[in-house]
Design goal:
- This protein has nine helices and seven strands; from the N terminus they run H-H-E-H-E-H-E-H-E-H-E-E-H-H-H-E.
- Helices cover 36% and strands 15% of the residues.
- The strands form two sheets. It has a five-stranded parallel beta sheet, with helices on both faces. The protein has a two-stranded antiparallel ribbon with strand order 6-7.
- It has a single domain, classed as LmbE-like (Rossmann fold), CATH 3.40.50.
- Helix 4 packs antiparallel against helix 7 and helix 5 crosses helix 6.
- This is PIG-L family deacetylase.
- GO terms for molecular function: hydrolase activity, acting on carbon-nitrogen (but not peptide) bonds, in linear amides.
Length: 252
């Protein structure tokens, strides 16, 4: 994932805990979101995006026996520019290990999970959007249900992947869904930018929420940052707090 400035969004008035519309979002069941027998494809711009966006849904679909495919666009190794503690070379080793551990904590069947690693460089996806769309389309089928980060979430890499994934899904006829990450941590006054008419709420039980939170904590390199160069954690406490909500919201 990418860092977010929380200079003012760390204050109470954020969309996720102050927007009245949140209470009125229609509830959707797992079966209505992903029809029986359909394959669900999760496209993560950076390590951890798949857990933060859909960690609960991944568990529910796995329990129902749905085939799952994860496409990791980058390995996140360029997330700490200028850091001696977390150099790109060191992160290229740690990040894949963290991702495996996070998915294991979700209880996913690692032996049967189809996992595609794109090898793209993070912080530079805008420049390769057309190539991204072609790459993603290579792994999609017409009957897939696709999930990725919202193209209007506010971060260049996530926006590029959102747009590229939308193009790829459209080119093969797959069902396309987006999931916001940082949009909820904007000031409550920005709620008008949220496409509430597309929002659907997937309810999660206590155990599913606990496993999702536990999986998020597997990304140790993103929880610490690097104080020596003033780099804040890529997963700030405010995001960890939201991970404990008993639902996930998807834009259908």
């Amino acid at each position: 994932m990418k860092p977010v400035s929380i200079s003012d969004t760390s204050l109470p008035g954020q969309i996720w805990n102050h927007a009245a519309q949140l209470d009125n979002i229609p509830v959707i069941s797992t079966r209505n979101l992903v029809p029986p027998g359909a394959r669900a494809v999760f496209i993560a711009p950076h390590p951890g995006d798949e857990v933060v966006t859909c960690g609960g849904l991944l568990q529910l679909l796995s329990a129902l026996g749905h085939p799952l495919q994860l496409i990791s666009i980058t390995d996140g190794s360029a997330s700490h520019p200028g850091s001696r503690q977390w150099s790109e070379k060191r992160l290229s080793v740690f990040r894949p290990q963290e991702s495996v551990e996070a998915l294991r904590r979700l209880g996913l069947p690692m032996h049967s999970l189809k996992w595609i690693r794109g090898g793209f460089t993070d912080n530079a996806l805008n420049e390769r959007e057309a190539e991204l769309a072609q790459f993603i389309a290579r792994y999609l089928r017409a009957d897939d249900v696709v999930f990725t980060t919202w193209s209007e979430d506010g971060h260049p890499d996530q926006a590029a992947v959102g747009r590229a994934a939308a193009r790829a899904a459209d080119s093969v006829g797959a069902t396309f869904n987006e999931v916001p990450v940082w949009a909820w941590h904007r000031p409550a006054r920005d709620h008008t930018h949220i496409p509430w008419h597309r929002a659907r709420k997937l309810r999660l039980d206590t155990w599913t929420v606990a496993r999702k939170s536990h999986a998020t904590h597997a990304y140790a390199t993103q929880l610490d940052g690097d104080p020596a160069i003033g780099l804040a954690p890529l997963i700030p406490p405010v995001l960890l707090e939201r991970m404990r909500l008993p639902y996930e919201i998807v834009f259908v």
